[in-house]
Design brief:
By secondary structure, the chain is an alpha/beta fold. It has a seven-stranded parallel beta sheet, sandwiched between helices. The chain has a two-stranded parallel ribbon with strand order 7-10. Strands 8-13 form a two-stranded parallel ribbon. The relative contact order is 0.13. It contains ten helices and 13 strands. It binds nicotinamide-adenine-dinucleotide and uridine-5'-diphosphate. The site of uridine-5'-diphosphate has 14 residues, from helix 5 and strand 8. InterPro entries: Epimerase_deHydtase (IPR001509), NAD(P)-bd_dom_sf (IPR036291), UXS-like (IPR044516). Its cofactor is NAD(+). GO terms for molecular function: NAD+ binding; UDP-glucuronate decarboxylase activity. It is found in: Golgi apparatus membrane; Golgi apparatus, Golgi stack membrane.
Length: 316
Amino acid sequence: MARILVTGGAGFLGAALCEKLLRRGDSVVCLDNFWTGRPDNLRRLATHPRFVFYERDVCRPFDIDVDEIFNLASPASPRHYQADPVNTLKTNVLGVLNMLELARRTGAKFLQASTSEVYGNPHIHPQAEHYCGNVSPVGIRACYDEGKRAAETAIYDYRRQYGLNVRVARIFNTYGPGMDVADGRVVANFIVQALRGGDITIYGDGRQTRSFCYRDDLLEGLMCLMDAPDDVTFPVNIGNPQEFTVRQLADLVLEATGSRSNMIHMPLPSDDPLQRCPDITLARTRLNWVPRIALREGLRRTIGYLEEQLKPAAAA
Ligand code: NAD
Ligand code: UDP
């Protein structure tokens, strides 16, 4: 049994990770400032004897004895991170520096929730970890993309300079139950729009691609990475290599919900990557990890969750 700190633990992925770690028998310390996370996500965990919550900003130093740190604190939806880009950059840069200092003081193993966004609008396809990316340092996504890139720099400098035991997961678009109705990312948007009978908002022509990973597959991947042998210190892509256009996703959501919503087109936001698909050779061969839940099945489960959330009693 380990004592594990999860930053961003009140968020979509963080709360499910806390739950999974508790189920495994670990003690969990959760840190979150509820920027995009919700107290409701922690309701089931709050009374657990091995769970403790600190309402804190990861940008401020935090001292506690732990064996492992999962650093997930950061808004992840473009809607959220673009609403306060300065805080996004601070969270990703100052937040990771604080958590690396904590790892240095305690000797804890450190895992960073990095992102496929480090590849930007990629020139190679699918994206393997050696690709250095194509990111605009000045665009509207830069606060997040460059923040995560700087975080990776800090992690490998701490490793070289202080010998920290580090892990970096480059997470590709992940969805599932637990996503907020107002999350703003494409899967949540399309499902909520379809369930409400509103227009499905396709940005651009809908031919841009993403590869969608189901939440539980992703969490399994993060835990495999944390538990991997100590030579697995390089970045590892965690995602589902099945690639879909945004238009195909809209079709699947309409089919799965039985909705008669119309599709409408809206302008494509600037710097929106045209294609994205992980090469997961490293995860497969070094972690023995592959995703298992296909998009249709994952959508079915996510629709069930969001349907419940939209019921008047859940909103009250
Ligand atoms: P989320 O927005 O649901 O969760 C992020 C959590 O971090 C929230 O609970 C939020 O309140 C908290 N947080 C943000 N800033 C903070 C701060 N300064 N101090 C303390 N807490 C703070 O997002 P998510 O989808 O659960 O993503 C979790 C992590 O995984 C993020 O680091 C994100 O960059 C990374 N990631 C997610 C995806 C994905 O598709 N879900 C893809 C790539 C990377
Ligand atoms: N998108 C869309 N309609 C929406 C939300 C997003 O067409 O209502 C598109 C968006 O432009 C992008 C893709 O869906 O091309 C994935 O967007 P998301 O915000 O989920 O994540 P990203 O991968 O862009 O960070």
